[in-house]
User: Fold this.
Amino acid sequence: MRAFSSTARLLAGAAGLSGAFVAGGLARDKYSHLQFEAAVPVLPKESLAALTQERVSKSFQLKADAPSQTERTFIMIKPDGVQRGLVGEIIKRFEQKGFKLVAIRMMRPGEAHLREHYADLAARSFFPGLVKYMDSGPVVAMAWEGQGAVKTGRVMLGETNPADSKPGTIRGDYCITVGRNICHGSDAVESANHEIGLWFRPEDVCDYTPMAADWVYGDN
Ligand code: IDP
Ligand code: MG
Assistant:
């Protein structure tokens, strides 16, 4: 019996509270009142509810400082980013930064749409190759919202040519040549709004307040 009791004690110690319940059940005949009763604090239901309520309401006493203006940027994972399995990594970076995903869509829009998206580059020598590359597989189109989303989004992407992109940026970390630079990001607020309108219907863009907004924004 004594050996069994030590085993029960070990179990309880190693597995914590739940282990205490299990081990307590095993040794209940003779030893449970000695070994386990004191280890399990008994809180009346009402006080637990009051404690929870206090904690929860305290966290919401922070002043809401989420920006009133809602700057959005258009970010796209190009066909090479999709093929190379970098969709999750790129989304993760924007999420972890604190930006809010407001629209996302995987698609293969076709040449005409891609020509329109890159219309300002139509005269460039690399334009036909760019359209062919962009039409070589599905892309993931996204709209991200947040303070400074356009400018910061560009910083997160890195330079157009990955060779000039710093480590820590998406292009700096994951690609090598300008012809396979895995992602697109709007270069100005106006072009962002234009691009979001080109790739999404208004009803595809979601309006919501993330629970963490007050933990992302605050001037104190
Ligand atoms: P950005 O994507 O950084 O905004 P842009 O100058 O707008 O750069 O060019 C759009 C895309 O065209 C680039 O991301 C890249 O895929 C492609 N591109 C730009 N310059 C060249 C080039 O010199 N050779 C081949 N492709 C290019
Ligand atoms: Mg551009």
Notes: The pocket of magnesium ion (ligand 2) is lined by residues 187 (CB under 6 Å). The radius of gyration is 27 Å. Residues 44 and 96 are 39 Å apart (CA to CA). The chain has a mean pLDDT of 82.
